[in-house]
Amino acid sequence: MKVIDARTDAAHINELFYQRIPEAGLRNYWHPVALSREITDKPVARTLMGDAVVLLRRLGRVYALANACPHRGTQLSKGTCEFPGTRTLTCRYHGWTFDVGDGSLVAALTDGPDSPIVGKLRVRTYPVEERQGIVWIWLADSPPVPVEQDIPPGLQQATIVRTVRRVATGNWRWHVENPGLGHATMLHRDSAYMRMVDFFGYAEDPQAVLGSQGDDGEWLLDRFGAPGKRAQYPGLGVWPRKRFGELVNITGMMPSLRGIDTFVSVKLPGIIRVINFPIMDSLYYEWFVQTDADHYLYFQVACGYPTTRRERLSWLTRFYAWGRWAGMVRFNAQDLWMVEDSHAKAKADGTNDPAPLYRPDGFQLAWRKYALENLRGAKVTKQQSDSLQAAS
Ligand code: FES
Ligand SMILES: [Fe+2]
Q1: 143 found inside a domain
Q2: Which residue, of 103, 134, 165, is where some domain finishes?
Q3: Is residue 390 situated within a structural domain?
Q4: What is the distance in A from the centroid of ligand 2 to the CA of 181?
Q5: Nearest C-alpha to atom 4 of ligand 1 is from which residue?
Q6: What is the pTM of this model?
Q7: 222 C-alpha vs ligand 2 centroid, how far in Å?
Q8: Which numbered atom of ligand 1 lies nearest the CA of 96?
């Protein structure tokens, strides 16, 4: 376990952050792109990190290709399957037919079976994998790492996986920097999800710690000390005020889950993990996959671990009756509401640094420093790494 404090070198970290952490997203990682059940023989178009991609299934497997026919540029997602039982996609315009496995042109239907152009060109393909009912894509040119490296063990081991996803307005980087106590005890206080909770107002001694808990790999953990329940703010009064109906004491109800006792954690390429959300016994992950300049896929995954039918029924009942709509849909919509504003500020000013700093911002800065130091495939110069070390 290593405490990361980047506050003393914030200006330098921020400068490197904009140089090295692209607004389009980090390509050298696997990212979730769709649910397995969404991808059928009928092609689906998705824009991912600025790339137009077509996803489709052939002979039971999912494939991804650049969504532009090399002939006249029309979208292959408008294409058809002219040869059922083969691994092909035919362009709707003039019938060029591609092997979706390697992207090669295997026929030009409207030029006859002896068309000389066959075999002469290729459409770009992207590696895709399916795990836990989710389709994962590798958008970099470099050969992919095994997909298991980028899927937290807590998701790989889940016996129930339930996903909510939507297209959000903004930039993935600001959403990765959204979590942390500084926002949670204020922004979410009035959500239906927290309405019955006697929620504390602040916590002492917030610390960002890089470490492993349980068997879920290494994360940047948002640790904090004693929760400050209700406090007298000089000249103002008491905050938070006690509300009618606050029946649940949150500090007394947060047991660890699968060996993890930190409520919120973050890791590359920008995954957030929350324990016991949106229901108890659920390990919850979020991904943010940039699509175009102003939008990203907000991918929320709740994981359960029931082993018996009875446990499974209990988990699913609590999830659908409460956790999904109150937590994943509505509570997290409050985050989207704020991230959109962060994006507007970043577009206007060119930056979105937490400034001036206050103590809870330590977590956001620690994430930036951790991301810079641990980025896969990043060429960090000697001078940069020395300056990061000096700031440790
Ligand atoms: S544009 Fe695709 S075959 Fe002509
Ligand atoms: Fe939040």
Answers
A1: no
A2: 134
A3: no
A4: 9
A5: 94
A6: 0.94
A7: 13
A8: 3
Do residues 303 and 264 share a domain? yes
Non-local CB neighbours of 135 within 8 Å, separated by 6+ positions:
32, 33, 34, 35, 36, 38, 39, 55, 62, 128, 129
**Nearest atom of ligand 1 to the alpha carbon of 91:** 2
Ligand 1: lining residues by beta carbon, under 6 Å: 69, 71-72, 74, 91, 93-96
Q: Is the peptide bond before 70 cis (omega within 30 degrees of 0)?
A: no
Domain count, the chain: 2
* Ligand nearest to C-alpha 286: 2
The domain of 99 spans 30-134
Give 141 Cα–ligand 1 centroid separation in angstroms.
Answer: 25
> CA quadruple 337, 178, 318, 164: dihedral positive or negative?
positive
Extract the tokens encoding 155: 């998701």
Alpha helices in 8-65 (DSSP H): 10-20
Question: How much distance in Å is there from the Cα of 188 to the middle of ligand 2?
Answer: 7
CA atoms within 13 A on the CB side of 5: 6
CATH of the domain at 291: 3.90.380.10
Please give the number of the atom of ligand 1 that sits closest to the Cα of 72.
1
pLDDT per residue as tens digits for the range 29-88 = 999 999 999 999 999 999 999 999 999 999 999 999 999 999 999 999 999 999 999 999
